[in-house]
Design goal:
The protein contains 3 helices and 10 strands. With about 170 residues, it is an alpha+beta fold. The chain folds into 2 domains: about 50 residues; about 100 residues, no CATH class.
Length: about 170
């Protein structure tokens, strides 16, 4: 039976994300402040490299932050500021909560800690996967025929139950 109501889940930040974001914001903000108050004031190249670029990196990272997750019928929505990434659940093969899923991962392409862990990653147990994560200890692994996706909702077991209720093929 397919449910029609949207169910939402928060995306709590884990300690590692809080730490990495704080360090990144401090470094990028510090570089921008140094750029504002020192160096050649008439050099556009200085302003671009020392002020604009660090602030653009911060703004870009904030735009891709993960605000939460929603399940609407057979679609998982990754909520971002001002937009959502849809993931069709119709071909889902299995779903499991696994707090160790991201352990030992290598980032292939993506964001490794500025407001989220998102992008393409790889580790030995999962192989290549796409992550939309804020706290790796809350990992839920979704297996599809052609890909694997990892999300980190605030209530992993309830999230898994909700996905299973909405998908007749997921384990």
């Amino acid at each position: 039976m397919i449910m029609s109501a949207t169910t939402t889940f928060d995306a709590p930040w884990g300690t590692s994300l809080k730490l990495m974001t704080a360090v990144s914001v401090s470094i990028l903000g510090g570089v921008a402040l140094i750029g504002l108050f020192s160096g050649p004031r008439d050099s556009w190249l200085w302003w671009l490299g020392m002020v604009a670029m660090p602030l653009l990196v911060l703004l870009g990272g904030a735009c891709f932050a993960i605000r939460g997750y929603a399940i609407d019928n057979r679609t998982l929505l990754i909520r971002r500021p001002g937009w959502q990434v849809p993931i069709d659940l119709r071909e889902l093969r299995s779903v499991e909560a696994n707090p160790a899923a991201m352990r030992g991962s290598v980032r292939v392409f993506g964001n490794g800690g500025l407001f989220c862990f998102a992008g393409r990653f790889r580790n030995r147990p999962l192989g290549p996967y796409r992550a939309f994560a804020t706290d790796p200890k809350l990992a839920v692994v979704l297996h599809f025929p052609e890909r694997t996706v990892v999300v980190t909702p605030g209530e992993p077991e309830r999230f898994v139950d909700e996905i299973r209720q909405r998908s007749s093929t997921a384990d």
